[in-house]
Write a structure and sequence with these properties.
- It is a single chain.
- The chain is globular and about 50 Å long.
- Helix 1 (2-30) packs antiparallel against helix 3 (88-107) and helix 2 crosses helix 3 (88-107).
- The protein has one domain (2-107).
- It has helices spanning 2-30, 50-62, 88-107; strands at 39-44, 66-71, 77-82.
- The chain has 109 residues and is of the alpha+beta class.
- The protein has three helices and three strands.
C-alpha cells in the first residue's frame, strides 16, 4: 500500500507541475515582449539506478519549459535546458525536492 500511495503522489505531483509550468509558458507566449532567460544547468542527482534517472529525465522533458539534454557518464549529473532560469541553484533544489524525492519514495524500500 505504501508504494501505491507513493506512486499516486508522484503522479499528482507531475500533474500539478504540468499545469503550473504550462501556465508559465502560456504567460511568456502571450506577453508582447519576450522576457525569458534561457539557459543550461547541471543537476547533481542522488538517484542511483538507470530506471530512476530515466524516470526523472522523462518527467523533466514532459514538463513544459524544460528539457533534459544529456546524462553524464557517471550517471550522477543531468544537463537540463530551461526556458527561463532566474537562479539555477534554486531550480535544482526545486527538482530535487519534488521529483527526485518522490521518485525515491516510489523506488526505494
Amino acid at each position: 500500500m505504501k508504494k501505491l500511495y507513493a506512486t499516486a503522489k508522484l503522479l499528482a505531483l507531475f500533474v500539478k507541475e504540468l499545469f503550473i509550468s504550462s501556465y508559465a509558458v502560456i504567460l511568456h507566449i502571450i506577453r508582447p515582449r519576450l522576457a525569458v532567460r534561457p539557459g543550461i544547468f547541471a543537476l547533481e542527482t542522488e538517484l542511483e539506478s538507470d530506471w530512476e534517472i530515466t524516470l526523472l529525465s522523462c518527467l523533466i522533458c514532459l514538463t513544459p519549459g524544460t528539457l533534459t539534454l544529456d546524462v553524464a557518464r557517471d550517471s550522477r549529473t543531468l544537463f537540463i535546458h530551461a526556458m527561463d532560469i532566474g537562479d539555477a541553484g534554486l531550480l535544482s533544489q526545486q527538482i530535487k525536492g519534488s521529483f527526485e524525492k518522490a521518485i525515491m519514495e516510489v523506488t526505494r524500500p
